[in-house]
Specification:
Blueprint: H1 2-13, H2 25-38, H3 61-73, H4 77-84, H5 91-110, H6 117-125, H7 130-145, H8 153-170, H9 176-188, H10 192-205, H11 210-220, H12 228-240, H13 251-258, H14 273-288, H15 296-309, H16 313-323, H17 338-355
Helix pairs in contact: 1-17, 2-17, 3-4, 5-7, 6-7, 7-8, 7-9, 8-9, 9-10, 9-11, 11-12, 11-13, 12-13, 13-14, 14-15, 15-16, 16-17
């Protein structure tokens, strides 16, 4: 199955990735063996596709335990307890709110009218719980952005904005409600002055919050209300002002990703000066950030995408070894089947590594 996915991906990607090994007969044979080897991920210590967790970018055992209990019993209290014990200004709280909201949205999509009932019950049973308000606000933003052409789009976002304000009232020290409102601002096309006023609320509470910067970046992108130049200015200013051990030096790589051409026939694009600098900035951030930084897996996943396309297979495999098992991150989450998207790139990394003569035994320790 993995090999089939890989071959389909080669057809789809067509000219976007051209591996040097495939340009030579011997290298081509080695790459094919690499593809075959990628169909048995356990040889590299990788998790089989069917066991990949699409909910999270990386491990969070406490969150998974709470979420599984919530879903098994449709009981909101484990989620409430978890958020109550999660530091308000930590990036972990932002990520946990996102995951809980995403789980409720997925349940609703699977069972319209019934799925995610625990979130509605939570809001009714604990109207003064700031965690419940934050999760509901994020849930509403996700529901609206699923279909921006819907007649209910603006109405849902207005409700989300009201719930954001309620969550902020209930927990004035928590930046998460304001971060969620950045998604509302994007959808409702806030004026630049209004967006910057909202952004100042975020930065007053958490000036170097990587998740907040990722959320704000979308507003400045060309496909929403900015341009590539504005997005670049935003990401590079954040990277330049980053404190020690921050992930913000990786932000320009996310900006580059958001402005990649839909069709690329330039083989050297991923070795261009702009992309190489963005990759190096992200690698710099990864090497210096705390190993348990909640957003670190997000950066590693995006690095896999760029390192494979830049034919830097050993470095891609290094990142894969850190994140394998979880695929709930950009760029995979943009696709209809994140696990399939991820395993394609995992197979490409192995094929490229073995096409150059590598093997599981020769991977750097």
């Amino acid at each position: 199955m993995e090999l089939l996915i890989f071959l389909i991906a080669i057809v789809m990607i067509g000219g976007l990735i051209v591996m040097p090994a495939l340009r030579r007969r011997r290298g081509g044979r080695e790459a094919v063996r690499g593809m075959m080897r990628a169909s048995d991920p356990q040889e590299y210590g990788f998790v089989p596709r069917e066991r990949l967790d699409v909910r999270l970018p990386g491990p969070d055992r406490q969150l998974i335990d709470a979420l599984e209990e919530v879903q098994a019993r449709q009981d909101w209290q484990p989620a409430a307890r978890l958020l109550a014990l999660t530091e308000a200004t930590s990036e972990l709280r932002w990520q946990r709110v996102q995951t809980l909201a995403g789980a409720a949205a997925f349940e609703l999509a699977q069972a319209p009218g019934q799925g995610g009932m625990w979130l509605r019950t939570w809001r009714v049973a604990a109207p003064e719980d700031p965690g419940a308000a934050a999760v509901q606000a994020e849930f509403l933003v996700r529901q609206a952005l699923l279909d921006p052409s819907s007649v209910d789009f603006r109405m849902i976002l207005e409700e989300a904005r009201d719930v954001c304000h309620e969550a902020a009232r209930l927990a004035p020290e928590d930046p998460v409600p304001h971060i969620i409102e950045l998604g509302v601002a994007r959808g409702m096309a806030y004026r630049q002055a209004d967006f910057e006023e909202l952004w100042s609320k975020v930065t007053n509470l958490a000036p170097h919050h990587m998740g907040a910067h990722l959320a704000a970046l979308h507003y400045w992108c060309e496909k929403w209300h900015g341009s590539q130049d504005r997005a670049d200015a935003f990401t590079h200013a954040a990277a330049a002002s980053a404190p020690e051990k921050s992930l913000l030096p990786a932000l320009p790589l996310f900006g580059v990703f958001e402005h990649l051409p839909e069709a690329n026939l330039v083989r050297t694009l991923y070795r261009s000066e702009v992309i190489v600098k963005a990759i190096e900035g992200a690698l710099f951030a990864v090497r210096r950030a705390p190993a348990d930084h909640p957003v670190l897996p997000h950066v590693r996943h995006l690095l896999v995408f760029f390192l494979v396309r830049a034919e830097r297979y050993a470095e891609a495999l290094e990142q894969l070894r850190h994140v394998d098992g979880h695929v709930g991150a950009v760029p995979w989450s943009y696709g209809a089947d994140p696990a399939a998207e991820y395993t394609v790139y995992r197979a490409l990394a192995v094929a490229g590594w073995e096409g150059g003569g590598g093997s599981p035994a020769t991977l750097p320790g």
